[in-house]
Amino acid sequence: MTNIKLISINGNKDLIAQGVLFDNEHTCYHDYYDFNDIIIGLLIAADNYGIFYNDEFIGLVSIFPHYYKDKSRLEISISIKEEYRNKKIGKYSLKNIIDICFKEEQNKSIHLSIREDNIKSRKMAENCGFKLYRGYRCDDTFTTLDGNIIPQVQYLLKRKDYLN
């Protein structure tokens, strides 16, 4: 995957906005109901990386605290342009972002919230070492832009498991 690059796009409001729109149903950013709030939240609270394929911007990876009181637990969201999905770009990007996250010793775990019906993303998470985390206590659904309620599952990767 030598044609894929992850490049920090922190502060680049236009690219972040474009990347958010790659998430057709708004499930990566389900806690926000206003597009501008999503962008402001990512600009303020997340580390954002653009996924570039042959220099074309095709995806967004955002890393942010999973729980605002504990910055050692991270959440990752990935949105990829529809025509580039199912080409192992997400897996490549996730593996590289995991490496970036765990370079920092204070980061203890990474969480992924995935639509329950998104079998390919769930398999990707498992192939990258994530385990289904049934002990998670929060809203277990996504609300899509058109108001549909979709069950979600939570995956967890602990630093100690990743390093072993």
Query: pLDDT average, as an integer?
Result: 88
Instruction: Sketch the major β-sheet.
Output: 8 strands, mixed
Instruction: Give the termini separation.
Output: 25 Å
Over all CA atoms, what is the radius of gyration?
15 Å
Low-confidence spans: pLDDT under 50, at least 5 residues?
A: none
Q: Strand content of the residues, in percent?
A: 25-35%
Secondary structure elements and their pairing?
Blueprint: E1 4-8, H1 13-21, H2 35-45, E2 47-53, E3 56-67, E4 70-80, H3 89-103, E5 109-115, H4 119-127, E6 131-132, E7 141-143, E8 149-158, H5 159-163
Parallel strand pairs: 4-5
Antiparallel strand pairs: 1-2, 2-3, 3-4, 5-8, 6-8, 7-8
Helix pairs in contact: 1-2
General description of the model:
- There is one protein chain.
- The protein is of the alpha+beta class.
- The chain is built from five helices and eight strands.
- It has helices spanning 13-21, 35-45, 89-103, 119-127, 159-163; strands at residues 4-8, 47-53, 56-67, 70-80, 109-115, 131-132, 141-143, 149-158.
- Strands 1, 2, 3, 4, 5, 6, 7 and 8 form an eight-stranded mixed β-sheet that branches.
- Strand 2 (47-53) and strand 3 form a beta hairpin.
- Helix 1 packs across helix 2.
- The radius of gyration is 15 Å and the shape is globular.
